[in-house]
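Dear H.,

Thanks for agreeing to be a second pair of eyes. The structure we're designing against is below in token form, covering all 692 positions.
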């Protein structure tokens, strides 16, 4: 065996408290002898703390922040800092020393994280939209946009956000006694003022810019901003008419008006329902789950703007038929393996706690997440039962399972008994366990539920949350903007968990209004793509998800053809998306999504005659006569696909292509072929396939 294999074998025994004194000395000698072995040892500790031993999970944070981990690992050069001499110690003392050692390791990594945030980072390429590879689209990356197009009537916008009367922004007091205050230390006035909440968001983000010497990107123009807002809220680009109406408006509060309108649209409720359906049960088909009923329930909750706490409570305490009570399908999907998936997924999604590894052992970096806590939470779900209704596909979920103690085995092989417990409180006698958990979440877990949702919604708007990963909150994973997370969490609680209002605050904040174009020097400092802490000094470009691609293609084709009322086939979209999904039978019933946003591949994989013919059919709908100028045709295509006017270079390319075609065919046919080429080029550009 190699030295690395020897070390990993010994490290595994060490973590299981099964290492002899002689083996300990051997491991210490290995660590003293080679810096590379010390790096391997620290990585092993990270993996041991974050992976389920029998789950097959992978460390998602490692892929996203390899550079940051290397910075942390390089901070430890003395193995004696990590390992204590256990020889002669009792078993209890050795175990105590073990956890002390892991705690020291965690501290070293945290120090490295803080150091990395303020370290000089080499400049990288600016965050701009790259040019497409298609020859006909070689000039699409240039973004010379006029602020107001000449065409299109101004459509009326709906009423603005209703701001309750209250104290002005400057009257909001947020106590910040230390760099990472608790939620309770950031009070807001009971009479919540939306403008004050937004102002405080801006102040805290701008403070981080100042501390890090960052000059933020300029404000995005109307074209860029409305496209980004539409993709985030509705899951698709804006139609041509929507963009034209917005950009032509002279109203000073038009962004506030549009945010109020879009957060209340049925399309936004449907987008949120789709996102949360995927989070709750995944994208793959499960035989005992009614996906349509779950999505219908979620759509209703978001469309009615019901309290998020109420939605969480209904998902946790659900009972009844899978086809009639859509909320039952969340737990119906995760009651396998003694309901350990239900425990892990519920904690991760609703509380922002990754606890899957603690079913086997205590969390090495968070003393509040132990094996006993996992099984005490599991006891709420374990007694639930699911039964099939006759020979149908309908399932029934209830809470009438056998009560009593829940038993688990610790690393010593001892059987431990626990009762259902959350936040130090047990169930009341005679009450259904999951209903009791829903009550305890509403009474004792409000801060955790609110912070988890705030972090997820912020990541929905920016591509990055305050923590990485976004569903692992706690002292072991410091937030990039702790005061801001605390501020929004308290505001969300005071709004009675109003998701629509939370989205309005973020959408109207200064960081969301920034452009994706930024100076190279600043981009090198604010680079979360490379594992650094996000400073939100620009709009981070990120690829569209598969559902966004499908819906945006549909919107673009309809806008070109002038048919904005054509509905989307949810069934066909779900079938198409599942081509990119691989399901895994691990402790969280996880999936992986292999989608690289290749539009050419995406169109070919749609495997549907109507969609395969979408480009020529959309172009044929444009009236083809000599009175139509080539510029008006190109403007229509650019507005439909990229939500902006074409640049001058794009106009030159289109005119040249049209002239070449008219030498061999009639003008109506030539302009249709040229339009098909430009439509295809725009759709295959990086600008179309990204949120920016």
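And this is the sequence the design step returned. I haven't edited it by hand at all.
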């Amino acid at each position: 065996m190699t030295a690395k294999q020897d070390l990993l074998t010994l490290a595994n025994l060490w973590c299981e408290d099964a290492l002899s004194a002689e083996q300990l000395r051997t491991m210490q000698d290995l660590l003293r002898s080679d810096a590379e072995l010390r790096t391997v040892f620290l990585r092993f500790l990270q993996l041991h703390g974050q992976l389920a031993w029998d789950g097959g999970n992978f460390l998602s944070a490692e892929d996203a922040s390899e550079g940051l981990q290397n910075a942390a690992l390089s901070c430890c050069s003395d193995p004696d800092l990590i390992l204590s001499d256990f020889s002669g110690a009792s078993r209890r003392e050795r175990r105590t020393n073990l956890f002390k050692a892991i705690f020291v390791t965690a501290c070293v990594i945290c120090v490295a994280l803080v150091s990395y945030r303020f370290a000089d980072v080499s400049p990288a390429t600016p965050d701009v939209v790259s040019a497409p590879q298609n020859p006909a689209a070689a000039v699409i990356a240039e973004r010379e946009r006029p602020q107001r197009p000449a065409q299109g009537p101004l459509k009326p916008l709906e009423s603005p956000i209703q701001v309750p009367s209250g104290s002005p922004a400057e009257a909001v007091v947020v106590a910040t006694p230390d760099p990472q205050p608790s939620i309770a230390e950031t009070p807001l006035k009971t009479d919540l003022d939306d403008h004050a909440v937004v102002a405080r968001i801006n102040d805290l983000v701008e403070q981080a810019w100042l501390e890090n010497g960052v000059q933020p990107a300029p404000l995005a123009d109307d074209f860029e901003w409305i496209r980004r807002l539409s993709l985030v809220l509705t899951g698709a680009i804006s139609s041509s008419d929507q963009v034209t109406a917005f950009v032509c408006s002279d109203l000073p509060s038009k962004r506030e008006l549009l945010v109020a309108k879009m957060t209340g649209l049925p399309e936004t409720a449907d987008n949120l329902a789709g996102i949360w359906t995927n989070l709750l049960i995944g994208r793959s088909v499960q035989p005992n789950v009614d996906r349509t009923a779950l999505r219908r329930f979620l759509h209703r909750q978001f469309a009615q703007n019901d309290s998020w706490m109420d939605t969480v409570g209904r998902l946790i305490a659900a009972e009844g038929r899978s086809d009639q009570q859509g909320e039952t399908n969340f737990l119906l999907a995760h009651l396998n393996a003694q309901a350990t998936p239900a425990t892990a997924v519920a904690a991760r999604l609703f509380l922002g706690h990754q606890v899957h590894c603690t079913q086997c052992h205590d969390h090495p970096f968070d003393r509040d997440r132990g094996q006993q806590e996992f099984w005490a939470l599991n006891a709420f779900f374990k007694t639930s039962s699911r039964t099939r209704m006759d020979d149908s596909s309908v399932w029934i979920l209830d809470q009438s399972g056998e009560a009593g103690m829940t038993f688990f085995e610790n690393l010593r092989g001892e059987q431990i008994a626990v009762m259902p417990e959350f936040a130090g409180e047990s169930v009341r006698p005679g009450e259904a366990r999951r209903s009791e958990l829903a009550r305890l979440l509403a009474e004792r877990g409000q801060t955790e539920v609110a912070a988890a949702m705030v972090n997820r919604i912020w990541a929905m708007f920016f591509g990055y949350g305050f923590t990485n990963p976004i569903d692992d909150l706690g002292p072991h994973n410091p937030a990039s903007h702790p005061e801001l997370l605390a501020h929004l969490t308290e505001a969300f609680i005071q709004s009675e968990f109003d998701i629509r209002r939370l989205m309005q605050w973020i959408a109207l904040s200064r960081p969301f209004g920034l452009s994706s174009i930024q100076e190279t020097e600043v981009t090198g400092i604010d680079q979360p793509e490379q594992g650094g802490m996000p400073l939100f000094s620009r709009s981070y470009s990120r690829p569209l998800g598969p559902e966004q691609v499908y819906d945006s293609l549909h919107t673009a084709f309809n806008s070109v053809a002038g048919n904005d009322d054509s509905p989307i086939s949810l069934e066909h979209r779900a079938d198409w998306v599942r081509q990119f999904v691989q399901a895994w039978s691990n402790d969280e019933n996880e999936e992986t999504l292999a989608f690289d946003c290749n539009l050419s591949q995406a169109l070919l994989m749609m495997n549907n005659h109507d969609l395969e013919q979408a480009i020529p059919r959309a172009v044929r709908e444009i009236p083809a006569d000599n009175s139509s100028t080539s510029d008006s045709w190109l403007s229509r295509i650019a507005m439909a696909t990229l939500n902006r006017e074409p640049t001058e270079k794009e106009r030159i390319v289109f005119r040249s292509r049209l002239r070449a075609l008219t030498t061999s065919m009639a003008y109506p046919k030539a302009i249709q072929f040229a339009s098909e080429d430009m439509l295809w080029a725009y759709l295959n550009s990086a600008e179309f396939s990204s949120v920016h």
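Two observations from my side: Residues 49-187 have pLDDT under 50 and may be disordered. The chain has four domains: 3-118, 169-263+448-540, 268-444, 545-691.

Warmly,
E.
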